[in-house]
Amino acid sequence: xxxxxxxxxxxxxxxxxxxxxxxxxxxxxxxxxxxxxxxxxxxxxxxxxxxxxxxxxxxxxxxxxxxxxxxxxxxxxxxxxxxxxxxxxxxxxxxxxxxxxxxxxxxxxxxxxxxxxxxxxxxxxxxxxxxxxxxxxxxxxxxxxxxxxxxxxxxxxxxxxxxxxxxxxxxxxxxxxxxxxxxxxxxxxxxxxxxxxxxxxxxxxxxxxxxxxxxxxxxxxxxxxxxxxxxxxxxxxxxxxxxxxxxxxxxxxxxxxxxxxxx
Length: 263
Fold this sequence. Notes:
Blueprint: E1 5-8, H1 17-27, E2 31-35, H2 45-55, E3 59-63, H3 78-92, E4 96-99, H4 107-111, H5 113-124, E5 127-131, E6 161-164, H6 165-171, H7 175-182, E7 186-191, H8 212-221, E8 227-230, H9 240-257
Parallel strand pairs: 1-2, 1-8, 2-3, 3-4, 4-5, 5-6, 6-7, 7-8
Helix pairs in contact: 1-2
């Protein structure tokens, strides 16, 4: 089965989740990943369901509110936020919640994170795909470890994981090597790109140096059947037309390069 190509609502920021569904339907995306954030619509299960039904496009995943600027969305207790994310996912028909590892200062949360994620998966039936992050650094290649138990999900026994190519760029981590380490535990992809700078760039795939095309070729070759979600930064686009061009180019890139070999 060929994976769906989804669009993250984060890809249209500062436009709203409603705009993301509209773009996805207009451009021919297969699904939408909802980033729960400061956009009020993204926090409301009923609104997400209405958008999905109105545009006749399914929700492939819920991204839990675990970014720095969403630390207070749905309260401040991290396990409660993940439980609400799972409930939203179940209500809208998504099988995946994307989650980042805890920040270093969230010591109690981090201490039980690996086992807690497994327990949540067992109790909810939802896959919590833990995302690769990166060391925090400025201009040098040395970085500070800001995530616990670590930024690389291949080093922990998570059942389900996410690879984000922009995060891999910051970490100078080869995504194909990470995918090989993860094997069938890789369930979710954030398709984007990066140049290797210290910034989390989320470039249109193919505009960076992470080998997004060979990465998709590899996934197709090994029979990846999870979700592929375009998560790019279009904040610098000067018009709706420019944003639409980037979103269309990203979708075309995914479909061009994820090609299942003929048997």
